[in-house]
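Handoff note, outgoing to incoming analyst
You'll be picking up this chain. Sequence as last confirmed:
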Amino acid sequence: MAGRSRLRGTGTAALRTLASWALPIVLLIVWEIASRSGVLSTRLLPAPSAVAIAFWESLRNGTLVTHATISTERALKGLLIGGGIGFVLGVLAGISQPAETVFDSSMQMLRNVPHLAIIPLVILWFGIGEEAKIFLVAIGTAFPLYLNT
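Most recent structure output, in case you need it:
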Protein backbone atom coordinates (compact mmCIF):
# COMPACT_ATOMS: atom_id res chain seq x y z
CA MET A 1 0.00 0.00 0.00
CA ALA A 2 2.75 2.46 0.88
CA GLY A 3 4.29 1.94 -2.54
CA ARG A 4 1.04 2.81 -4.32
CA SER A 5 0.50 6.02 -2.34
CA ARG A 6 4.09 7.03 -2.98
CA LEU A 7 3.54 6.52 -6.71
CA ARG A 8 0.28 8.43 -6.57
CA GLY A 9 2.04 11.31 -4.78
CA THR A 10 4.78 11.29 -7.42
CA GLY A 11 2.20 11.51 -10.19
CA THR A 12 0.44 14.37 -8.46
CA ALA A 13 3.72 16.22 -7.97
CA ALA A 14 4.63 15.71 -11.64
CA LEU A 15 1.20 16.92 -12.70
CA ARG A 16 1.54 20.01 -10.50
CA THR A 17 4.96 20.73 -12.00
CA LEU A 18 3.56 20.45 -15.51
CA ALA A 19 0.57 22.61 -14.59
CA SER A 20 2.86 25.31 -13.20
CA TRP A 21 4.54 25.55 -16.62
CA ALA A 22 1.26 25.74 -18.56
CA LEU A 23 0.65 29.50 -18.24
CA PRO A 24 4.21 30.59 -19.15
CA ILE A 25 4.23 28.25 -22.16
CA VAL A 26 0.81 29.47 -23.34
CA LEU A 27 1.94 33.10 -22.92
CA LEU A 28 5.10 32.42 -24.97
CA ILE A 29 3.05 30.79 -27.73
CA VAL A 30 0.54 33.68 -27.80
CA TRP A 31 3.41 36.19 -27.80
CA GLU A 32 5.12 34.39 -30.70
CA ILE A 33 1.90 34.23 -32.73
CA ALA A 34 1.06 37.89 -32.00
CA SER A 35 4.55 38.99 -33.07
CA ARG A 36 4.58 36.93 -36.26
CA SER A 37 1.07 38.01 -37.26
CA GLY A 38 1.87 41.70 -36.76
CA VAL A 39 -0.48 42.26 -33.82
CA LEU A 40 2.57 43.17 -31.71
CA SER A 41 5.22 45.43 -33.16
CA THR A 42 8.50 43.51 -33.31
CA ARG A 43 10.32 46.80 -32.81
CA LEU A 44 8.69 47.18 -29.39
CA LEU A 45 8.43 43.53 -28.39
CA PRO A 46 10.37 41.05 -30.55
CA ALA A 47 9.12 37.49 -30.80
CA PRO A 48 10.50 34.97 -28.29
CA SER A 49 12.19 33.11 -31.15
CA ALA A 50 14.01 36.32 -32.17
CA VAL A 51 15.08 36.85 -28.56
CA ALA A 52 16.37 33.26 -28.37
CA ILE A 53 18.29 33.65 -31.65
CA ALA A 54 19.86 36.92 -30.46
CA PHE A 55 20.73 35.27 -27.13
CA TRP A 56 22.50 32.33 -28.78
CA GLU A 57 24.27 34.61 -31.26
CA SER A 58 25.58 36.90 -28.52
CA LEU A 59 26.59 33.86 -26.47
CA ARG A 60 28.39 32.36 -29.48
CA ASN A 61 30.33 35.50 -30.41
CA GLY A 62 31.22 36.32 -26.80
CA THR A 63 29.44 39.65 -26.42
CA LEU A 64 27.03 38.28 -23.81
CA VAL A 65 29.87 37.09 -21.58
CA THR A 66 31.74 40.37 -22.06
CA HIS A 67 28.74 42.51 -21.15
CA ALA A 68 27.73 40.24 -18.26
CA THR A 69 31.27 40.55 -16.89
CA ILE A 70 31.16 44.35 -17.13
CA SER A 71 27.76 44.44 -15.39
CA THR A 72 29.01 42.12 -12.65
CA GLU A 73 32.06 44.34 -12.09
CA ARG A 74 29.80 47.41 -11.78
CA ALA A 75 27.54 45.62 -9.33
CA LEU A 76 30.46 44.43 -7.21
CA LYS A 77 32.11 47.87 -7.16
CA GLY A 78 28.82 49.49 -6.17
CA LEU A 79 28.25 46.84 -3.51
CA LEU A 80 31.73 47.31 -2.07
CA ILE A 81 31.42 51.09 -1.97
CA GLY A 82 27.79 51.40 -0.88
CA GLY A 83 27.84 48.31 1.27
CA GLY A 84 31.03 49.41 2.95
CA ILE A 85 29.67 52.86 3.69
CA GLY A 86 26.31 51.50 4.87
CA PHE A 87 27.96 48.86 7.05
CA VAL A 88 30.44 51.26 8.67
CA LEU A 89 27.78 53.92 9.33
CA GLY A 90 25.40 51.25 10.63
CA VAL A 91 27.99 49.88 13.04
CA LEU A 92 28.90 53.38 14.22
CA ALA A 93 25.24 54.31 14.73
CA GLY A 94 24.64 51.03 16.52
CA ILE A 95 27.48 51.31 19.02
CA SER A 96 27.61 55.05 19.56
CA GLN A 97 24.72 57.32 20.49
CA PRO A 98 26.54 60.46 19.23
CA ALA A 99 27.20 58.74 15.87
CA GLU A 100 23.54 57.75 15.62
CA THR A 101 22.56 61.34 16.36
CA VAL A 102 24.88 62.61 13.61
CA PHE A 103 24.13 60.02 10.90
CA ASP A 104 20.67 58.55 11.41
CA SER A 105 18.37 61.47 10.53
CA SER A 106 20.36 62.27 7.39
CA MET A 107 20.44 58.62 6.32
CA GLN A 108 16.70 58.23 6.95
CA MET A 109 15.98 61.40 4.98
CA LEU A 110 18.15 60.35 2.01
CA ARG A 111 16.76 56.82 2.10
CA ASN A 112 13.28 58.14 1.33
CA VAL A 113 14.33 59.96 -1.85
CA PRO A 114 13.30 57.76 -4.82
CA HIS A 115 16.27 56.60 -6.88
CA LEU A 116 14.52 57.65 -10.08
CA ALA A 117 14.28 61.19 -8.74
CA ILE A 118 18.04 61.52 -8.36
CA ILE A 119 18.98 60.14 -11.79
CA PRO A 120 19.00 63.62 -13.43
CA LEU A 121 21.34 64.85 -10.69
CA VAL A 122 23.55 61.78 -11.05
CA ILE A 123 23.81 62.43 -14.80
CA LEU A 124 24.77 66.06 -14.11
CA TRP A 125 27.33 65.05 -11.49
CA PHE A 126 28.88 61.99 -13.15
CA GLY A 127 27.70 61.96 -16.77
CA ILE A 128 26.48 58.68 -18.23
CA GLY A 129 29.67 56.70 -17.73
CA GLU A 130 30.70 54.00 -15.31
CA GLU A 131 30.80 56.31 -12.30
CA ALA A 132 27.08 57.09 -12.52
CA LYS A 133 26.15 53.43 -12.75
CA ILE A 134 28.39 52.45 -9.86
CA PHE A 135 27.04 55.37 -7.80
CA LEU A 136 23.44 54.23 -8.31
CA VAL A 137 24.31 50.69 -7.25
CA ALA A 138 26.16 52.08 -4.22
CA ILE A 139 23.13 54.16 -3.23
CA GLY A 140 20.90 51.11 -3.66
CA THR A 141 23.07 49.00 -1.37
CA ALA A 142 24.11 51.54 1.28
CA PHE A 143 20.71 52.05 2.87
CA PRO A 144 19.71 48.39 3.34
CA LEU A 145 23.10 47.63 4.87
CA TYR A 146 22.92 50.69 7.10
CA LEU A 147 19.44 49.77 8.34
CA ASN A 148 20.20 46.09 8.86
CA THR A 149 23.57 46.46 10.58
